[in-house]
Amino acid sequence: MNCKRYFLILLWVLLPMTSLYATKPSRQIYNINSNWQCYPLSAADGALADHIQIPHSWQTELGSYGKGSSAMNYTREIDIPIEWEGKRLFLRFGAVQNTADVFINGSYVGSHKGGFTAFTLEITKQVRYGAVNYIRVLVSNAYRSDIFPISTDLDLTGGIHRYTQLIVTPKNIISPLHHSTDGVYVIQESVNSERAAGFVRCILSATTTDQGSLRLRIIDPAGNEVDNRTLRVTKLTAERAIDIHYIIANPALWSPDEPNLYRIEVSFNDGVTEDCTEVITGFRHIAVSDNNKLCINGKPYEVRGVNYAHDYQGFGMATEPHHLANDFEMICDMGANALRSISGPHDPKLYDMCDRGGIMAWVDIPFTRSQIAFSDICYLPHPELKQNGLRQLEDIIYQNFNHPSIVMWGVFSLVWQRGEDVVGYIRELNDAAHTYDPSRLTVGCSNSDGAINFVTDLIALRQDVGLYKGHADDIAVWCRQLADPRWAEMRYAVCYGEEGSINHVTETIERATRDTRFLPERRQTYLHERYMANIEVAGNFWGVWLDNMFDYASVRHNYNLNQAGMVCYDHKTPKDAYYLYRAKWNKERATLHIPNRRWSERRDTLQFIDVYSSVGTPIMVVNDDTVRVDRIANSHYRADSVVIHDTGRIVVCDSLNRHSDKIVIHVQ
After folding, report:
1. Cα 68 to chain center, whole Å?
2. Is the peptide bond before 98 cis (omega within 30 degrees of 0)?
3. Which residue of 149, 218, 283, 555 pairs with 366 in a disulfide if CB–CB is 3.0 to 4.6 A?
4. Average pLDDT over residues 366-381
5. Whole-angstrom distance, CA of residue 150 vs CA of residue 422
6. Are 163 and 307 contained in the same domain?
């Protein structure tokens, strides 16, 4: 992605948001993120209360209640003016981890189970008009065997961790209740460079009439109206789906190279009031080729992807748009063209950035298992758990349906095959995903053999060769085995990673043990160097997925951190592996980086010096002497047998001396 495009995306994300829509004032949307109180269930109302701002997670705060509680009350007063009587009112929660029970003035309104999806409740009958009303949300983050995930190494911090809104509408509307969306879905039946055709499905909700008119306008990326239709609708109910067909000639298609976006405006008029909303989308066709390449509009793409966790240092899962924007900038700077939301979707703002930036997205449902606790149970054949998984899948798909950047739905990750028939349930999820959304591919992440790898359209095979067994270069043998015609039906990518701490330095690289607390960055760097060198030679994967982009809080890992990130937990400090991939993947910004710079105190006078370069073979000078540099892999160079006594001042530059890097090492 070029710098200008990223700047425009960042500017758009950080604009203040007073309303989600630029529509007629018949519908008002108010952010109600301030003036909340949070306190333990055991406390009397108001006692030990902290005044907080949404998004919020109590497990990252240092308030009087501490970090150990598994449930909290969130309360807020809200003034409902008398002028709103005769309208409909809704509360929308962007996400609550992981269950929520909502009360208005002491009356129960509804519940939600699942920490990654939004939910909306109508409160029209519970509020008092012309008075102060009292909202209470009982939030629990306790372990539940009937809610996914039931096994994870993520630290899922409890709280109302995405924005809350009050929506005020007329009586007869485009429904905000259908899976807590805008009630508008742009369904693409056929897409090519000559024609985009399908229909826009609108979910209408009427309480005082059974008829009205529905209008659709489609605005192209240049601001031109390309379709305008009005449909008379009858037999309306509390929820009815109405489809309006569209045809766009010579559409400007969305792709990673040209992320063209259309604006879809929908309005419903009952003869007295009008309700309006709009969504942004793009038209594209997604497929996988016979030679195992992901194709957008018929063009194959080499997927350079990163796994992306949900927390941010000091904030837990209660991230703000500027956190996402900072992370998105680093993902783009490294040269990745795809990201994977592991265990569940991120805030939709992230996919807005992907839409505008041409970054492909894989969005998981929270059907996963911890990589650390191999005996963990991640699935029970319990009807409530199965239904919860299907419900979360449905919510995730519909809530993110209109984002063209989302090209695949992840239905499982590293699940345990022993015991119950998990493959049968994966088939249920896979079939459901295709039913809800036939236009996208399904994908799973697997570290197992067998039938589990042939259910979804795509599979990413988690590989750990060289971590606890074998050697990192054994990945070459595995790549050759996958090229065997026996696996021709399996559409496979590779996913891999290794922990590394910038604070752990070693002279020798030794294979890790599962209980080790010593995580040298050099070992992480070496594994990525060897994996990537061999995978580039093999060339038989539809994608490469790095696990993970950033270190993240973990309830299972040493130091309460998974340190497999390309960037440290501060989301600011890149590790050496970051520059390895930046040199290989980012063709727009030059990279010249000497790794192992934190290994500054060394023992041997005979040293090797590596360089990651995207600007050709670098020139290296050691203590004023030029030394020979050889290419050992794509964008990876090395000066071998460099003699250093006492202090080595190492400088590298490109042939035109436009880019340089330097380090100092000491030999004792």
Report:
1. 27
2. yes
3. 149
4. 84
5. 14
6. no
Based on the structure, what is the number of domains in the chain?
4
**277's tokens:** 């909303």
Which amino acid would we find at residue 125? K
Task: List 90's β-bridge partners, or say none.
Answer: 122, 167
Classify residue 239: in a domain, yes or no. Answer: yes
Residue 54 lies in a domain: yes
Question: Are 257 and 324 found together in one domain?
Answer: no
CA nearest to 429, candidates 406, 452, 449? 452
Domain that holds residue 654: 601-667
Kindly report the CATH number assigned to the domain that includes residue 62.
2.60.120.260
- DSSP E strand stretches across 161-302: 164-169, 173-174, 184-191, 195-205, 212-219, 225-233, 240-249, 262-269, 274-281, 286-288, 294-296, 299-301
Residues 569 and 617 in one domain: no
Residue 643: strand pairing partners? 606
Closest-CA residue to 172 (of 181, 183, 180): 183
- In b/e form, how buried is each residue of 82-116, taking b as 16+ CB within 10 angstroms? eeeeebbbbbbbbbbbbbbebbbeeeebeebbbbb
Compute the C-alpha angle 392/398/400, nearest 5°.
Answer: 100
pLDDT digits (tens, 9 = 90+) for 312-343: 999 999 999 999 999 999 999 999 999 999 99
Report the alpha-carbon distance of residue 93 to residue 155 in Å, rounded. 21
Residue 551 one-letter amino acid: D
Output the furthest CA–CA distance in the chain (Å, rounded): 88
- Cβ contact 366:342 at 8 Å: no
- 607-639, pLDDT tens digit by residue? 999 999 999 999 999 999 999 999 999 999 999
Give me 225's structure tokens.
């109206």
